Amino acid sequence: MYSKPVIKSSGKQLQGMIMRIDILTIFPEMFQGPFANSIIKRAVDKQLVSIYVNNFRNYARDRHQVVDDYPYGGGAGMVLKPEPIFEAVEDLVGKPYVKNPKKPVILLSPQGRIFNQKIARELSTCDSLILICGHYEGFDERICQHLATDEISIGDYVLSGGEPAAIVMVDTIIRLIPGVIDEQSAADDSFSRGLLEYPQYTRPAEYRNHCVPDILLSGNHGEIEKWRRRQALKRTLERRSDLLDSASLTPEEEKMLSRLRSDNSEKADI
After folding, report:
1. What is the pLDDT of residues 61-91, one digit of tens each?
2. Could you confirm whether domain 206-269 is CATH 1.10.1270.20?
3. Which residues does the annotation mark as catalytic?
4. Strands 68-69 and 79-80: what pairing?
5. What is the pLDDT of residue 161?
6. Cα–Cα distance between 139 and 68 in angstroms, integer?
7. Where does CATH 3.40.1280.10 sit in the chain?
8. Would you say the C-alpha torsion 249, 252, 254, 259 has a positive or negative sign?
């Protein structure tokens, strides 16, 4: 359970239903605020997940605790050394280390596959995760080849380190664990079915002459559901049409989408 800026794990995996997330970093203080609030804190308090933040600098072999060095062959920047990271992971999972996709060891790197809701849902079913935060010019390639089971990026841009990416991933994954939030709420989220979420409104029904759509005040739940599906399709078509290529649509939604595309085509011709 997250209780200190630095928690050095005993190396023993927890048993049972609880998910365990270990984060390896050289800046453990960065996690104190995000993990002590909101949904993550509630999930920890409900014992649905445990989070350990491990400083892999503690596994450096020299008295100065150096975790990086110059790249062989020359070039700018520094590279994270293999020894501290290998030994930190082995302290968590035991020796000898053998890759196991069911117990992911993930490098947070701009060279990884792009993180999305589908990947988050897959990872939320794991018993344990190890997230390793990159820095400098990246990881020694032996870490990538012989330690990591996956490399993940949260977008096509470069961060100063993997810590913000780890926070994003942990938040996204934890809210998908059963019991953390209302199941229907998660099902309606943007990207859950490959669509953006429909527009949401709350009280008052009129504000500065801007009114809530009448259909939402009608009490006709069947028509409200149909309106929401159409709005989700419309918003996705307008803002992220690329998502529609892989979205899971019902036959009725396919017809809705066809009509929306036809309406857009007619407007473009005017």
Report:
1. 899 999 999 999 999 899 999 999 999 999 9
2. yes
3. 110, 137, 175, 189
4. antiparallel
5. 96
6. 9
7. 19-183
8. negative
pLDDT of residue 8: 38
Strand partners, 151: 107
Specify the domain boundaries for CATH 1.10.1270.20 within the chain: 206-269
| Amino acid of residue 14 | L
One-letter identity of residue 149:
T
Residues in the chain: 270
Which DSSP string corresponds to the chain? ---SS-----SPPP-SS-EEEEEEES-GGGGHHHHTSHHHHHHHHTTSEEEEEEEGGGG-SSTT---EEPPTT--SS-EE-HHHHHHHHHHHH-SS----TTS-EEEEEEEEEEP-HHHHHHHTT-SEEEEEE--TT-B-HHHHHHT-SEEEESSSS--SSSHHHHHHHHHHHHTTSTTSS-HHHHHHSTTSSSSPPPP---S-SEETTEE--GGGGS--HHHHHHHHHHHHHHHHHHH-GGGGGT----HHHHHHHHHHHHHHHHHHH-
Query: At 29, phi and psi to the nearest 5?
Result: -65, -20
Q: Is cis: bond before 96, omega within 30 of 0?
A: yes
> For the chain, which ranges sit under pLDDT 50?
1-16
Residue range 19-183, CATH number: 3.40.1280.10
Report the alpha-carbon distance of residue 85 to residue 81 in Å, rounded: 7
Entry pTM? 0.85
